[in-house]
Amino acid sequence: MPIHRRLGGPPSLLVLLALGATVHVQAQVFKSTVEVVPLTVTVTDAKGEYVKNLVETDFAVLEEGVRQSLAFFANEPVPIDLALTIDASESMASQLPIVRRAAGALVDSLRGGDRATVVTIKNAVGVALPLTADRPRIDAAIRDLSASGRTALYDGVYVVLKELERARTAEIRRRVLVLLSDGLDTASGLGADDMLALARRAGVGIYVIAMPTWGSHLPRKRQDGSALQAEYAMRALASDTGARSFFPKRVEELPAIYREIADELANQYELGYLPSRSVTRGSFQRVTVHVEDAIARTRSGYYADQGSVASTLPALSTTVGLVRPH
Fold this sequence. Notes:
This protein is α/β, with parallel strands linked by helices.
């Protein structure tokens, strides 16, 4: 993977050290605790086509308006940890056959070294399959999806963020959550604002596919307030994490949407920087990325010195019903 670094020293070693990765050199193991802010960046032109073959100097990264020097840059995809998070409540029963095919195609696009987990959202949140690179097990977990109960949507996002954090290692990996739901939460202990706040802390790109709900075909002024609130939450969830939201009108659109997500994951850049100024611990720092004559999309920012996301979330057992596979 082409990786470039501005700081002095051997590029490959310093890049990995800055990321907190483990590096084996002459039978010795090095590990760093340097806090680098990692960014996954999607760059498109005015037509929405992905801009490829950019180099480090094409990017300008600003934190709270202040230009930052890049600590690392990679113009090829890094290994992915993919969380397929699927609303399997009773309202989704008729759509599951197409959902299975579309989700399976996304898994087929993964490369060697990528991993996936399958999480279902019903009355409780079920981890149908923990994070693994075993493709037959991933395919089986998708095939075995079944629908029942109500939708604990916000709790589902919470559980996936915890699962991805729990499985995190020193290896450089991109963490992605693909959420499919009608957007209406009917069973969560968490609220929409809590979910959004947690998502902004996690550093996980969250792609949202929001299926149409009853009355969504009506003019906006005639739609139910809860449906409009759900739409806002879904759009914000994707936007704040640097990903995208999709609002298909028919379930038949799902295969094309999952293909779009797979295409985007294969055409992103990885950047990182060491903040150039001291900031208040726990404060939210807004980040923007600029590329000349193009549109660069990344997460809206990060929380300074937050530690692991696990330490910022409430205790799982007191908030969310979680079902793990036997």
